């Protein structure tokens, strides 16, 4: 009888679920969140990892989405300058190409002026015969347009939202599956199962938020017992990572003959990320893998631009995810809207339900604000919007202060190599000092698992970021999986299996 009744129970630990939970608890709502796997284990870690307006969405007349996205770029950068930073994009052009120069100029003019850009530099035109950006490309591309967008460590943005929500009082439950949810006496009665221990629990909440991403319709059908749920169009996007193709710090925006586009982006210092694909997907989202057809497509598309071809044997890693786009009836996967749709259900005294469809990394904060408007209308308003001026954990330093933060870390911990220090600040920002503690040498960081991944960092991720397995550490909390061998990864898994889960 004394069990807490939450104001809001959120299903889904991707960017939208964690963003809504953080915003809500910061306004004074009592919040619980359940994620059936690890945070960002689905769509939210399978993105192209951009904070961007969506230049190509202008062709589909998605002006509201583009404007909102453009406005969010600098807000998010200021919120988390450790995991988000500006990136310049080079869009090569040649006569007879897919899009005429005037159309590209018009799109970039709108891009520069539609979203209140203040800190990001404006579009410029490049002579590719002289600019270093032309060096890795074929001579055909004598001209290019250069514009600004941003980069984000997507999975870290998710877990930092979860961490901040927990710090503010939310009950955060990874590896917890919602098995049923029913309305009774004006409340939601939710049954969950801990997928690690098998423990079953019951929860009560005034309102339920279904932010399960690709599984949103599945939750409606299975947990709520509704047979008809066909709101989401699943679209597969796959990426390949190859050894570094160019030294330039800028990224490339390539236009393909089929009117699709791909990016080639500097990645983790030593690699190039190439993607994405767009194709409808009908199987279980848990089984998504890059196909041979997609691999060939990405290699061929990039090879149309690079002097040195991209071959399948060059690939060091691939990843693939399913985007849960709202089904707007678009004929092609790449034309389906990237905008989000929030649907509120529950009339009279029935406990309200908010289903979240679609969305993208760049607009997650605004989606959360709009969700809180719906929540306030349903169960009463608490608090005002607050996240626009906030910081994610570790991001409380000036928007252009990354280099100063690295320099300060190296002064405090002179035994750190420059690359190591930079990588730590990129992951943890000002919280790096909590991770390193009183260490005075590398030996004080404990066991080295490979690369520059030490026991102290693994312990921090277990204690503060819900990591339980090597995969959580190597492919979501960090990208050290690119640097560790299979044997080293297995050694890390064995080490983590022997220590208890102990997130505070």
Automatic annotation (TrEMBL):
Keywords: FAD, Flavoprotein, Oxidoreductase. Its EC number is 1.1.5.3. GO terms for biological process: glycerol-3-phosphate catabolic process. This is Glycerol-3-phosphate dehydrogenase. It comes from Rhizobium redzepovicii. Belongs to the FAD-dependent glycerol-3-phosphate dehydrogenase family. It catalyses: a quinone + sn-glycerol 3-phosphate = dihydroxyacetone phosphate + a quinol. GO terms for cellular component: glycerol-3-phosphate dehydrogenase (FAD) complex. It is an enzyme of class 1 (oxidoreductase). Pfam families: DAO, DAO_C. Signal peptide: none annotated. One of its GO terms (molecular function) is glycerol-3-phosphate dehydrogenase (quinone) activity. Residues 7-342 form the FAD dependent oxidoreductase domain. Its cofactor is FAD. Residues 387-494 form the Alpha-glycerophosphate oxidase C-terminal domain.
